[in-house]
Structure formats: C-alpha cells, structure tokens
Amino acid sequence: MLAFTIALLLAPDAAAIADARGDWVGVVAAGDKSLRLSAHLERRGQGLIGVIDSPDQGAFGLPLANIVQDGAKLSFDAPSVNARYEAHWDSARSAYVGRWIQNGQAIDLALTRGGYPHDFDLDWNAPVDPGLAYQPAKRARPRVGPDLNVGKCVNMSNMLDAPTEGAWGPAFADDDFTIIKTAGFSSVRIPVAFSAHADTTPPYAIDPTFLARVRHVVTLASAAKLNVLLDMHHYDAMMRDPDAEAPRFVALWRQVAQAFADAPPSVWFELLNEPNDKLTNDRLGALYAPALAAIRATNPKRPVIVGPEWNNLDKMLAFEMPDDPYVAPSFHYYDPFLFTHQGAPWPNPAPPMGRSFGSAADRSELDRSVAKVRDYMARTGRVPILGEYGAQDDPRVPLAQRVRYYGVVSSAFASVGVASCAWGYRSGFRIREGDHWLPGIVEAIRAPKP
C-alpha cells in the first residue's frame, strides 16, 4: 500500500491554500509535445492522500508517496513512473511552481487549482450480461450458530474507526440512525478503532471518554430499532505482532464486553476486522478463544461475528470456527477489484480508470462466489454475513456503474438468503452525501426476504 501524508504546516504566503484538498492541474513539455498532469488530493487524518493522472497518456490513479509540505515548499514522488515533483508556493500566481523530475530530466511544472474535462477515452457503456440479475430468496436460517436477522445493512465507515472522529469524514450526528432506518435499513455495522484509544501497557485501559462516545452512538442506533454490529477495526499492531498484542486484544474485549453487558440483544460484537500479515488463519483460533472467554464472562449469549484471514471468502471456507454456539462467520467481497478500486489512491499498482461492471466474466465470477457460499452453508449449517462490499466513489466513475454494482452484488448473495452490509455511509465508498442519498443506490441495495 502506497500513500502519502502532507502535514499542513502553512507558511504565511500559503494561507490561501490552507485546505489542500481537491484537484491540481499543470502541463509539462515533453519534446515537441505538451502533456497534462492532474493531482487529486483528499484529506486523511491530519494530512492528505492522493493520486496523479496523465490523461494524454491514458494513465490514471498513479499513487503518490513521500510527500512533504514544509512551509511554502511541496514535494512528492510518483514511484510508478520514477518521477518526483519539487516546488514552492507562488502567491502571485496562486500556484505551486517547480520542477517535474523524471529519469534524471527536470521539466518546469506549475500546479494550479482545477480539473481537466473528462475527455479521455473511457467506455462506460460496455454491454451488460442479461443474466446478471438475481432475485432475493428468504433469509437463510442456520442449523449451527445464532439466527441473525440482518436485513438491509450499511457500514458507518470512517467515523469511529478514524484516528479521531471527524478526521476522515463527517462525525456522527444524532439523527444519522433515524435517517438510515427511514431509508429501509435494518442493521448498521459500526467499525471502531478501540486500539487507537487505549493504553499500550497493562491493564490496557480504553479512554473512558471515547468508550462513552461509542456507547452513546450504539444507544442511538438501538433507539432507532437498528441491529448493531460493533466491530474492532484498524488494529494494525495486532497484524504485525499477534503474540505481543494478544493480551491487549483480550483486555480490550473484556472492557468492551463489560461496557455493553446491559445492551439489548440486537447489539452484536465482531472480534476483528480483516486479520492479515502475520495473523493468518492458523493463528486465529488461539487469539479468538481467550477473547471469546472474556466476552462470555459478562455476555454469555451475545452473538459474536468472527472473520478469517482478510475476511476473504476462500479463507472462510477453510477456517475452523470457534467452539461457541453463538458465533457466526463473516466475509467481505470487493470483486472485481479492478472495478471496485479504480481511482483509489492506496493500491499499488493502482487499477486503471475505465473498468465497467456487468460483463459475462463478472457474472461468472459472482456466480462462483455465490455457489461457494451456498455450498458452505449446506456443509456447515452456518449462515455467514457479507460484512463489507462496495465500490470506490471516484467522481470519474459514473454513478450508474456503482448503482449497478451495489444492486447486483447485494441481490446475488440475497438469492441464497445471505444479507450484506454496504461500505459505506457518508465517507469512503460513500452512498450518502450531505443531506441526500446518492440517487438510486439505496433503492438498488437488496436483502433476503424475511
């Protein structure tokens, strides 16, 4: 994963660009030709992430790295094209003025605010496979594990899982859950970065103010008659060193379980989002067992969701579930990746812009995944939850493409009785913006029949 951070350390003459979010454009001279460049910056935490495009060369979404803003100076690398940009802010021109250095050659480049028309050749009208249509069936009922009536579900993304609430997008508003319930949703998944708000030494205490905030948010959701999947998210240290972090993981869940011991039965726990790196399938059992024991001390029958390595579907098929009658499996689905992550700044290499969704190959891939889930349920008696799916909300991708994706994927898994939880609400693959839902997405999302 490549990303960059721009610390917002503004010199006096840079006051006009205190918020560097948005689009920046410029032109470099390449021999007897001029090539347009466009950088796209988005705030994350106290800095920014972004990509750069070269539309005249058909290159889009190239990730940027090693970005430094020091007063009026700005620099960043574009590793995939062996290039670097070094510039200073010129208040008279309202531009960053500097040099684009590529393969040892330095070329003048000024970046000003703006965006180029989308005149590059992208075909969003590729034929859609006529068989790419699914009808929701009745919700599947488990022979093993809890019977969870998830219904229509959305992730409250980039809110409590951000370093601080509001750093990655809008903070929670007290009317969010009423809005969601009114739109026809039955459940919300609330990712929470508990590890970012807890001590790193025993007894690993969670900040009481933060824990109270989480309780307030969950209480609001419950008051709106929504089921809540309370998910431990972004525990990166756990992935890097599971043995060292295991005691802290158990202690965090002990505290969370105690805090929600009196919560209604519609509040469910999810142990860990997308285990990865050193936390492979064969190590998860030893991690999950003591955490479940800590939860069961105060919540003996509360449903707990568990996921395999990366919450990957194939990994779920091979994952040995904990010996607990109230646990349910979960998986995530972001296929085809070249469609769902085009325009995203973090993958390396970045998927090229222009991949449409709905081909015969897309249908075959989705049919195979649905069949795997159906066979898993028949074999194990367990009914999984599709905890995340979605497509990047890059403005260059027509909304109709995203509407099709959310509708097709949710209805495909609903056709075997499996509920899905869309990523995400108002930030990160967002389906709502400002005071309105993005047209067509909520209506497209389907759930199994009751």
Automatic annotation (TrEMBL):
Family matches, as SUPFAM superfamilies: (Trans)glycosidases (SSF51445)
Gene Ontology biological process terms in this record: glucan catabolic process
Keywords of this entry: Glycosidase, Hydrolase, Signal
TM regions (residue ranges): none
GO CC, alphabetical: cell surface; extracellular region
Sequence similarity: Belongs to the glycosyl hydrolase 5 (cellulase A) family.
Record's protein name: Glycoside hydrolase family 5
Native source species: Caulobacter segnis (strain ATCC 21756 / DSM 7131 / JCM 7823 / NBRC 15250 / LMG 17158 / TK0059) (Mycoplana segnis)
Upper lineage: Bacteria, Pseudomonadati, Pseudomonadota, Alphaproteobacteria, Caulobacterales
